[in-house]
Write a structure and sequence with these properties.
alpha+beta; Cytochrome C Oxidase, Chain J; Catalase HpII,  Chain A, domain 1; Hemocyanin, N-terminal domain; 4 domains; ten-stranded antiparallel beta sheet; seven-stranded mixed beta sheet; 19 helices; globular; binds CIS-heme D hydroxychlorin gamma-spirolactone; Catalase_haem_BS; metal ion binding; metal-binding; oxidoreductase; Catalase
């Protein structure tokens, strides 16, 4: 399908695989030698290099200036292209914005996902908030919805942002730690700034270690406004709901992946798109009419609060599909620049103080990062016509003809556009008051929603949350920090604080004066299942050694591919592995995609162990293969085993008490996510795939 933004970018794209003009300088001079500097030589001895070699000089100069400042936060990211389409008229009552109401449009988008704390080269799977920034290239200009995968934020006021970022970033004296909030300063900030209470619960939950960018919710976080054709105003919060449901890694996986495959999320996004599994989200809105602003016991303009969906329903509006990877990281993912201040008619801001400050900060940061003409860069420019009297500045490259560059001018060129013809309309809001540095009364309450979140977790999620906090506080070596943190957690939930105190040391907290209200909401990630159960794009490892059962592996590979998932054969070595009945060294056997040391079980969603007596004997004597199986089992991955593979699984995963099938009918031990069968039959295969699907659910 055509995508206006891709067409636009194509006008600036060269493909070096298609065009071979030969090597030239940037000025077009054909270069005959790009490897050896011009020197003085007498034929035998080679003397000094000559400064006059302008080709060498320019190559080095150009290289010296390749880096630009990385983003002060969200430095590490991955991007993709796609489109957004409205699929109902839910939004029409509230807004006149075509992008949210016109179902005949396909609006091009670019999305950049990111972590917040780490620098550009940090690992993907660290515990952190994930950025979820969407640029809609609409017919009325760019709309940037710059959100996160968590619906609330650490602070209420933009003015606190530098303090918060300094506190969470590596400490100033030694620049430690990288990609982590597990340090004194972050927790000190939490201790002293109670408005962080709600967000800290989310960041310590499994939401902060997603399995994939494709399996996260997104949230605009701030409160925006919508305005309809009749001029009525509504407050709105934006939600992205992933087609695949919300899934997380377990902490042990996240830790290991940070070393084993620091680009895990980046690769995952590209791998899925390239293998025909575009990433999809439903855009949904929560809407509050202007007159109901003060109806709730929380302030609807406070970014540390959610709007519980039991009170304000989440209404689906349209679907975003990401189906194209970037061609070049720097010019697209690195140079893309978002601004919360970029809205289109029908969408507006609210008095949310965090949003007001963000509206200043983003434009400003892009000037430092990319220069004043950053909006001219191909990835940032709109797909609709644009023209104004902003001029000049470093690296201006658009050439504008005409003899005037101001308004009004004698030629009446470029007059402002009337509101009726699509010009920006300001909502006529009556404002009066006293100039004061104040926060609203309801902004003073910080604990009710932190409790709401904690109460809404399942037991497993609560246990993970306690472990996560205990991990982080264990990395704080200042007793003031970790003992105070326990007191602060006690304001949220006494049991939670007690469990953490037991783990990290220090005095146990006494009963808190603040009692947990016990209420819950739909916040557990288990509530966000895939639209349709699927294993599409999931990575499934098949362990093999020489002498494996060839027919079973072939059948399994075919079944996995047919389900849209990705089979990977993992062997003792990368290269030919021979099935039973074939002589090693003769013929091709099966080519293992990876070997046990090169890839680890953490990188896969499920594991299959075929039968074959020689193959099982050899895996059983391979420590790494045993570790693979045990680790996959420990991480609760679905595991299938057939024939002799069953005994290997039983021994490797230390499951002596569990009954495995030894007949051909197959037994499902679903509590463990384990499926075994004497041989691969249609029924055992379908049971197995069901378990994998269930795990992906
Ligand atoms: Fe921010 C980047 C999300 C509060 C100032 N922010 C940035 C990005 C995301 C967010 C996803 C990366 C965009 C990209 O991929 O290029 N930020 C948020 C959310 C917030 C938030 C959801 C709370 C609702 N941010 C926030 C505040 C301020 C900033 C309060 C300043 C007052 N944010 C920035 C920034 C960044 C940024 C310094 C760094 C790089 C950039 O803008 O382009 O201006």
């Amino acid at each position: 399908m055509s995508n206006k933004k891709i067409d636009d970018l194509n006008t600036d794209t060269v493909d070096i695989q298609q065009h071979h003009p030969g090597l030239t300088t940037d000025a077009g001079l054909k270069v005959s030698d790009t490897d050896t500097w011009l020197k003085v030589s007498n034929g035998e001895l080679v003397g000094p290099s000559l400064l006059e070699d302008q080709v060498a000089r320019e190559k080095i100069h150009r290289f010296d200036h390749e880096r630009i400042p990385e983003r002060v936060v969200h430095a590490r990211g991955a991007g993709a292209f796609g489109s957004f389409r409205v699929f109902n008229d839910n939004a029409s009552k509230y807004t006149s914005a075509g992008v949210l109401t016109d179902s005949s449009r396909s609006t091009p988008v670019f999305v950049r996902f990111s972590t917040v704390q780490g620098s550009r080269g940090s690992a993907d799977t660290v515990r952190d908030v994930r950025g979820f920034a969407v640029k809609f290239y609409t017919e009325e200009g760019n709309w940037d919805l710059v959100g996160n995968n968590i619906p609330v934020f650490f602070i209420q006021e933009a003015m606190k942002f530098p303090d918060f970022v300094h506190a969470v970033k590596p400490e100033p004296h030694n620049e430690v730690p990288q990609g982590q909030s597990a340090h004194n300063n972050f927790w000190d900030f939490f201790n002293l700034q109670p408005e962080t209470s709600h967000m800290i619960m989310w960041v310590m939950s499994d939401r902060a270690i997603p399995r994939s960018y494709r399996m996260m919710q997104g949230f605009g976080v701030n409160t925006y406004t919508l305005q309809n054709a009749a001029g009525e105003l509504f407050f709105v919060k934006f939600h992205w709901l992933p087609e695949l449901g919300v899934h997380s890694l377990v902490w042990d996986e996240a830790l290991k992946l940070a070393g084993q495959d620091p680009d895990f999320h980046r690769k995952d996004l590209n791998e899925a798109i390239e293998n025909g599994a575009p990433a999809k989200w439903t855009l949904a809105i929560q809407v509050i009419p202007e007159g109901d602003e003060h109806k709730y016991d929380f302030d609807i303009l406070d970014a540390t609060k959610i709007w519980p969906e039991e009170l304000i329903p989440v209404q689906p509006v349209g679907e975003m599909v990401l189906d194209r990877t970037v061609d070049e990281y720097f010019t697209q993912t690195e140079q893309v620049a978002f601004c919360t201040s970029h809205i289109v008619p029908g969408i507006g801001f609210s008095d949310d103080p965090l949003l007001q400050g963000r509206n200043f900060s983003y434009f400003d940061t892009q000037i430092t990062r990319l220069g004043v003409n950053w909006e001219e860069l191909p990835i940032n420019r709109p797909v609709c016509p644009y023209m104004n009297f902003n001029r000049d500045g470093a690296m201006r490259h658009r050439i504008t003809k005409g003899s005037v560059n101001y308004w009004p001018n004698r030629f009446e060129q470029l007059p402002p556009v009337e509101v009726a013809k699509g010009g920006l309309k300001q909502y006529p809001q009556k404002v009066s008051g006293v100039k004061e540095r104040v926060r609203g009364a309801k902004f003073q309450e910080h604990y009710k929603q932190a409790q709401l979140f904690y109460n809404s977790m399942t037991d497993v999620e609560k246990a993970h949350l306690i472990s996560a906090i205990s991990f982080e506080l264990d990395h704080c070596d200042d007793p003031t920090v970790y003992t105070t943190a326990v007191q602060r957690l006690n304001d949220i939930d006494h049991e939670l604080a007690k469990q953490v105190a037991i783990n990290i040391g220090g005095p146990l907290p006494g009963k808190s004066a603040r009692v947990n209200h016990g209420k819950t909401s739909r916040l557990s990630q288990f509530e966000f299942k895939p639209t349709t159960p699927t294993i599409k794009s999931r990575r499934i490892a098949i362990l093999v050694s020489d002498g494996f059962d060839g027919a079973t592996v072939e059948a399994m590979r075919t079944a996995i591919k047919a389900a849209g998932a990705l089979p990977f054969v993992i062997g003792a070595r990368r290269g030919s592995i021979y099935p039973a009945g074939e002589t090693p060294g003769k013929g091709e056997g099966i080519i293992a995609d990876h070997h046990f040391e090169g890839q680890r079980s953490t990188m896969f969603d499920a594991l299959f162990i075929p039968g074959g007596s020689q193959h099982v004997r050899s895996l059983a004597s391979n420590g790494r293969a045993i570790h693979w199986i045990l680790e996959a089992f420990g991480h609760l991955k679905p595991i299938g085993a057939v024939g002799e593979g069953v005994a290997l699984l039983r021994d490797a995963a230390h499951l002596p008490g569990v009954q495995f099938a030894d007949g051909s009918t197959g037994t499902v031990i679903s509590d463990y996510g384990v499926v075994t069968a004497g041989s691969l039959t249609p029924s055992s295969l379908s049971e197995g795939l069901k378990i994998v699907k269930g795990a992906a659910d």
